[in-house]
Amino acid sequence: MTDSKSFTHVDAQGAAHMVDISGKVPGQRQAIAVATVQTRSDVIQLIEENGLKKGDVLAVARVAGIMAAKRTSDLIPLCHPLALTRVSVSFQLDRENGQIEITASCAVQGQTGVEMEALTAASVAALTIHDMCKAVDPSLQINGIQLQEKTGGKRGHWQREQNHADS
Amino acid sequence: MTDSKSFTHVDAQGAAHMVDISGKVPGQRQAIAVATVQTRSDVIQLIEENGLKKGDVLAVARVAGIMAAKRTSDLIPLCHPLALTRVSVSFQLDRENGQIEITASCAVQGQTGVEMEALTAASVAALTIHDMCKAVDPSLQINGIQLQEKTGGKRGHWQREQNHADS
Amino acid sequence: MTDSKSFTHVDAQGAAHMVDISGKVPGQRQAIAVATVQTRSDVIQLIEENGLKKGDVLAVARVAGIMAAKRTSDLIPLCHPLALTRVSVSFQLDRENGQIEITASCAVQGQTGVEMEALTAASVAALTIHDMCKAVDPSLQINGIQLQEKTGGKRGHWQREQNHADS
Amino acid sequence: MTDSKSFTHVDAQGAAHMVDISGKVPGQRQAIAVATVQTRSDVIQLIEENGLKKGDVLAVARVAGIMAAKRTSDLIPLCHPLALTRVSVSFQLDRENGQIEITASCAVQGQTGVEMEALTAASVAALTIHDMCKAVDPSLQINGIQLQEKTGGKRGHWQREQNHADS
Amino acid sequence: MTDSKSFTHVDAQGAAHMVDISGKVPGQRQAIAVATVQTRSDVIQLIEENGLKKGDVLAVARVAGIMAAKRTSDLIPLCHPLALTRVSVSFQLDRENGQIEITASCAVQGQTGVEMEALTAASVAALTIHDMCKAVDPSLQINGIQLQEKTGGKRGHWQREQNHADS
Amino acid sequence: MTDSKSFTHVDAQGAAHMVDISGKVPGQRQAIAVATVQTRSDVIQLIEENGLKKGDVLAVARVAGIMAAKRTSDLIPLCHPLALTRVSVSFQLDRENGQIEITASCAVQGQTGVEMEALTAASVAALTIHDMCKAVDPSLQINGIQLQEKTGGKRGHWQREQNHADS
Fold it and tell me: F59, B54: Cβ pair inside 8 Å?
């Protein structure tokens, strides 16, 4: 899993810059990222019960995640602006463990990958859940924000090793 | 630590809205949030060595976190716009464990708290580190995004219980 | 209902500027605006049926309207930035007439009113419905974007005359 | 005029997402949208007289509409980001009926249409006129925000039926 | 004119942060900034002639400057968000010398000054003129972006020394 | 160096619009812009000394300039949105003359040039330095914001004439 030991965002003098992707071949690129919201069983139940009625907590978080994906290059200083062709955000509720697993998936036809877009979507969806639940669980935690899989680009397909994800 | 069992962002019909804070007394409010970047020892070393020269990875992440705090209400749908009076983001590097602990602190003179602003600052700083390190460690993880402490408001001082933080 | 015959956004030389509100007394101000989406009965039925399951069209439009209210001064050149203390957006479906009536309500403690914030929220919620329904009804129309009521400020309470609203 | 009865923004489970346009063929796409500002004759006269001097009300509204078109995907949650190649906004004043007809036209070389961009430009131009005239006519109304014509894409040319537009 | 020799944006460890203004007394603060566009006589004539008809170059630049002032804290990393109460941008054309002098003025009731807001308004107005004139004068220069005067705050009134401005 | 005498941003009726670039051939385009910050020797020394430690003033200004380049079409009303493929900002300190020369360089594969992106990056980097130094030198000036060189597009290579730059 080790990669080349240099920071592509830092030039020869050590100064930050937005790296040159002019020479890269445009292609179809996709990325999937996840995040886990750790709260309590009763909070998951509250979300589910409201969900049975109008599903609002997850609906708001989904919209927030999708909109954040589109603003990634506005938030992360050295990210390239990208015309995303697809964004989706989904949720898996685990009442027993008081968890919500968030999965964000992005695609683009472009010269660079969409890892940061998927990670940003998952993170902002998680922060939105935090915001809407913080009155009932101020101790809520967000964990495991990580890239799960990506396709396209020079390096081709990359998938997270399971044991690393579990550590 | 249990709080009232209702979602303040959801009205009587279960629809999302930005809750009314008109009646709240303005006051000095502060919040501290943290996040942990989990990478490898050699990546921390790379950051430190660049840091000894120009410190750019952390400098860029710090700026990104501060700017994101100011855009919180633009990202999190039901957050109120706030005129922050202070934002700071700091980093603690742990080379042995391959970790960076991020601490974000915000303050406002206003009618609602700055928890989401501190959490957003810590999250975006972490995502920026992820962006700048992903070429060398695509498996990098962000964990433990959580509120650490807050002061001000009707409920007064709140501090994270240590055992909960460790779980 | 006639008011003073001068444009407050235009100075003595006829040039646009953001008018000086420094001298105004801060106070509680509220505004309610409406908009009507005109589509077909079968489209309303589609929205309702989805709504019975997840309510997504209206949930997305509601979030869009709330977020747009917070960005009003970023969109309308001469609007003052305001720290809104409340925003809500609600919908009334009329299947028979193929209509959705949108009502947006905003409040602030400040030196100027929130009419534009409420109007922007209603407009962007309507545009979002348009976006989500345009594949099934490209002829969809948005009508009657207007202020319904406002309170606070030097002029006090203002309410739309009913016959005018009907014209 | 009836189209397929399904919401392209809603996936199989009824959850909102930004639909996949990866497989669409890029092409030249254009759209024209309109909106009508309904005010009073004397307000139109005021705008015209200022217009004879500096034309500011319409000039400000035109800039606001053009800038809003570029921010459409930032406002409408499920819109794709697009690199617009042309935006124009024009006005037709009708003093007798106290009306301003706004026409917005957009073009892109891309995989999806620019209907929402044209509709957003017309809407924000109308809201800007509302803002600048609300001191003299708080009852001002915005009507008839609708797509007039579009070209490009799989379905080719679409034009509004006149009788529908008049209804 | 010399001030204390320390950077208020840099903390004890030399790291950037948004300085704490919580303890400052809110008050009325104003600032005036200027910028000079240096082009050719014939370009000024073109602007004036268009100006006699519709005044668009200056009207667009004025709107751009006003809108930019409101986004200052979004552009300048360590600036505090401020609810501006007034912004104006004016132009003085000097055909003989091929110059446009831009003056921007801002006000706020707040805990920190509006120097950066006025400077940003003047700069973006100048950049907008550059954009609109670059086809006829790609060599156009922007000079003398500087603070002219400010009032309010602990240090009270400050005015630029004329000889310094001339240097 | 004289060019065609017409404003491409102004249509036949003199109204502003975002010009049609649909017919332009996409190609590799680059631009370099500069700006000069004029302050005092002792301020440059302060920046350098902090720079020897953490380099923060320049690091913050660099990030601000890069982020601003990506937001150019959001700030300059008639600029087209562009997916920049490269942005860099560098600084040359001249302690003797109390100056900082800023150079910004941008590239895109597109239908229009990146002059405004490079000029915006240089300007916002300069404004950020102004912000961070204004407590020690409120008289600081920004001069010589200008295009230095551009390549690509119908007109091909353009380079600033040296004597003009010196005037």
Answer: yes
